[in-house]
């Protein structure tokens, strides 16, 4: 009888201990406090406020300060803590290459507006060549920067047994006028009288123009705006082919 009571007592004590353990496990655990991530240091960088095209003049409204993560700031970037007046200091500079909105401004891609202005207008692979002109040889002075022209060479030829005669021939077609004298923009008056016209040409066309100027007089023929879409500049073939018959033989020779 004593053994039975002892067994019941032990069984009851074990059940009470199990219940206590289960009760402790069911208690809600205190939530752990979230650790806030370390804040990355930011630096204000001068960026483009919108798309800026090549050839435009930079204005204060074209740029803005924008915070950038310090590890991403390049040494070529313009920082507000180093140059707080950079937006006004760079105002009026010339944009050599375009910027997209939000892109950091780099001074290496800017230039003073009076430096290399003409070279920035040249298309890749083209050359600027100046030719001597007069009002008569530039459509009465109505050829302006930005117009397109044909270049005509007039020279005097004399052949054996023939009188000397003047011959004119188009040697360059659809060349873009970059400037008249030192004027690279159209004036409000609408006419620019000058002694030289600067044309945009390929290297081969530049050689042809220099040779043609040494052997004759050059004139510029103004092209219609509707013709500007044609091939930019075309060096015309100055040679002519003549067919010669000798008895039963026929040959073709090339003459100037």
The helix content, as a percent range, equals 10-25%
Q: Count of helices?
A: 4
State the end-to-end distance. Answer: 142 Å
* Outline: rod-shaped
- Total strand count, please? 12
Unreliable spans are 232-236
How large, in whole angstroms, is the Cα Rg? 41 Å
- SSE order, one letter for each helix or strand: HEEHEEHEEEEHEEEE
The amount of beta strand, in percent, is 25-35%
> How does the major sheet shape up?
6 strands, antiparallel
Which structural class do the helices and strands define? alpha+beta
Total domain count = 2
Mean of pLDDT: 77
Architecture overview:
The chain has helices at residues 2-26, 86-89, 117-121, 203-215, and strands at 42-48, 63-69, 93-95, 110-112, 127-132, 148-157, 165-180, 196-201, 217-222, 234-235, 240-246, 249-255. It is an alpha+beta fold. The chain folds into 2 domains: 42-115, Type Iii Antifreeze Protein Isoform Hplc 12 (Alpha-Beta Complex), CATH 3.90.1210; 119-241, no CATH class. Strands 5, 6, 7, 8, 9 and 10 form a 6-stranded antiparallel sheet that branches. Strands 1-2 form a two-stranded antiparallel sheet. The chain is rod-shaped and about 160 Å long. The protein starts with a helix and ends with a strand.
